[in-house]
Amino acid sequence: MSSQWPLFLSSHLAVLAKAMSLTSLGLLYDHTVFPYSTARMGPFETKRLAENVIELRGKSLTVLVQSASVGRGIPRYCQACIDDDLSHYGESYWRRRHNLPFIQRCSIHGELLLALPVKKHSAAIAVTRLPEECDGLVVKELLPDPTASVLMALSIGCLEAMDRREELEWRQEYRQLAERKGYPRQGCGFSSLSVLTAFRQFYGEELLDSAGLNFLPTETNAWPIMLLRSGYEVAATTARHLLVQTFLEHSDVPIPMQMTAPGRKRRDIALEDKLLAREVRRVIAKLPAGTRISVTELLVRAGGWAVFRHNRKAMPRTNQVVQDFRITNFSERQVGRRPYWRKRLGLEK
Ligand SMILES: [Zn+2]
């Protein structure tokens, strides 16, 4: 039998392993979310946690499962997998890989997963039925491809990875990635505003909200920027690590946001204008219907408020997009003439 979501939270792991003719470690690594939860922890920490879980000291296993979910962690399954399971085994089971954070589709069948309907205000979800006995609803696809596929591959990789590196090494790697991408420096780290603004744009607020991971780009200690710092402990879940890694590896090169210091190389304002205009258009295109934001907020989200404010006249492309935005449904200060805006912004042919 392959991956199985742990339905045995209240049972003693060693007893269960014996009943399944497995070693405790085999059960832990092959049938629970343990390898995912510990994927970005160091080798010592992972070993200690494994011992705790096996001996069921404290509530290690419950904590473990909670740390492998984000938001409300609603159980998910794939209908095609159920059909396969029923024909092969006579019953279906919960799969780990469907129930990791940010997984929307089945990695085998490619179909959108089904999620159990959850009653409002019910905090914890106990899975007491087999997937075949459930009436799930198709999950909302909050992540576009290729981001969704990249995150899925990384997450499933975590289920299979046995080797461990120190958490600090991962953070060093993220900093190197950010450095290569050209995120502006500020003090001894990166400009938090620049990184955080780009991060929010990359994933979209709806996804971050649904996972309880949203933040303001002006928060200098927001969690994504903490993963780019060194020198002190950061207890970040695997899900947060994978979001940061995927963002740094796959987001576009950031737009410069800092004013260049005097004496430094002259900035190419025409290029910045072009990039910012493109970015603003992209932010507008991603705004959910019904959203109303100010021009300032729009530019902040696009990561170019400071540069635009100081160079408005030298940035005609961005200025044009901003003027067009003012007459859209999205602008707080809408002034009419709306039928043409989508066309003018290049959102429709
Ligand atoms: Zn499937």
Keywords:
349 residues; mainly alpha; 3 domains; three-stranded antiparallel sheet; 5 strands; 46% helix; globular; disordered N terminus; binds zinc ion
Describe this structure in words.
It is globular, with a radius of gyration of 23 Å. Helix 7 packs across helix 12 (238-250) and helix 13 packs parallel to helix 16 (316-326). 46% of the residues lie in helices and 3% in strands. The protein starts with 12 loop residues before the first helix and ends in a 5-residue tail after the last helix. The chain has 17 helices and 5 strands. Mean pLDDT is 81; it is low at 1-10 and 335-339. It has 3 domains: 13-138, no CATH class; 167-250; 269-344, no CATH class. It has helices spanning 13-19, 24-31, 34-37, 43-54, 60-67, 79-89, 147-160, 167-181, 192-203, 205-210, 223-226, 238-250, 269-286, 295-301, 305-310, 316-326, 341-344, and strands at residues 76-77, 114-115, 137-138, 185-186, 189-190. A 3-stranded antiparallel sheet has the order 1-2-3. The chain has 349 residues and is mainly alpha-helical. Bound molecules: zinc ion. Zinc ion is lined by residues 78, 80-81, 106, 108-109.
